[in-house]
From TrEMBL:
InterPro entries named among the record's database cross-references: AB_hydrolase_fold, GCE-like_dom
Gene3D superfamilies, alphabetized: alpha/beta hydrolase
One example GO MF annotation: carboxylic ester hydrolase activity
The name this protein goes by in its record: Acetylxylan esterase
Record has Translocase as a keyword: no
Entry keyword Nucleus: no
Organism the protein comes from: Euzebyella marina
Pfam family, one: GCE_fung
Domain 4-O-methyl-glucuronoyl methylesterase-like: 227-381
Keyword field: Hydrolase, Serine esterase, Signal
Amino acid sequence: MSFFHRKAFWAFAYLMSITSFANAQDLNKKVAGIAINYDENNVPDYQLPELLISENGDKITSREEWFNKRRPEILSLFKTEQFGLFPEKPKLNFNVFENDGSAFNNKASRTQVRLFFTEDTTKIKADLLIYLPKKSKGPVPLLLKIGFSPNSNAVDDPELKEGMMWTREGERVPASQGRAFKPFDVEKFLDNGIGVATIYYGDIEPDYPAGFKNGIRGHYLEEGEDYPAPNEWGTISAWSWGLSYAMDYLVTNDHIDSKKVALYGISRLGKTVLWAGAIDQRFGMVIASCSGEGGAAISRRQYGETIHHMVHPNRYFYQFSGRRAKYSFDPNSSPIDSHMLLSLIAPRPLMLQTGDTDYWSDPKGEFDAAVAVEPVYELLGAEGLQTKTWPAAEKPILKDLGYYMHAGGHGSLPSDNDVFIDFLKMHFINK
């Protein structure tokens, strides 16, 4: 389906949607002309798909049945119905252009690696920036953060060369001219024996509808195709594919404990790290911040952002497989929901972080999904949340499944890092 056919489809679909939203939601609250529900009383009745019953009706009762039968079924559904099919990665190709640099008053060693995603090293490539604590005597755990800005903006390190950044209008500009974000507090993690790596999502695929022309998806398009077909990968799969490629490098670095690499991303990149952790089980932990619709929040709740909002032609349809649009008006017709995405991480540690006023991302829907996935964690010998009571803000639940809601809105706050570090140390250092 071409880009223009998709636009025509959605113009028709939007007209069909107006009546279905009018009865249950406040039409004065809209995004892209689509009403928003912020009232728990208007959450419809729903039934989540079964996690531990296979497609042929067999009950899943063992670890072997989960990994050999049910997990592959769920993974396949997310590939076809939500994130899209993606190609095999090419053989790892990289260049370490800085090794054993020094940073943060000699507290950390700095390594910079250029990852080449195609045989032509002049085209699609990404810089992976790695800081490791110098005081450590052996391989260290690592937090791999995928971010919205180039590495020179992501970290307060004056030794880094300025990177290039994609604007939302599709222009590539110096990082200092792009959207600004507060630098990540790398030193706090280093002080706790944890390394930090960062990668810019725009180097893998720019984040706008026609970004595939300058990203990895465009490299794999069939000749003459102007936009990926409905069952092909969206940008979330592309970013996840790039993270898996980065992991291909990390396992070669003897100073990193490759079994203790945690993924971390915020918002759409929270969705990304969930999917990356699902498709690549080498990642030892996932920390997803405010991942919301398409991430950890239950779609069937139709609270805050919905499938319909996400796949609207003026918003983020390009982040998903085109087939995701089938469930825009009836999430209950989908064979999947967010608890199933979370199940693909089990039994590895998973932290869902959100904010108590981030209604758009539905913090309760994320908690309910974590409660729903607990039977899979328990089947695999891990601990779920062990409560069905939604906690107040600033009251973290730290098991193998973790949930934390700060007092505030969308994204992560500097104080959230303390909770992340506690979770990382709990599973990667103190165990």
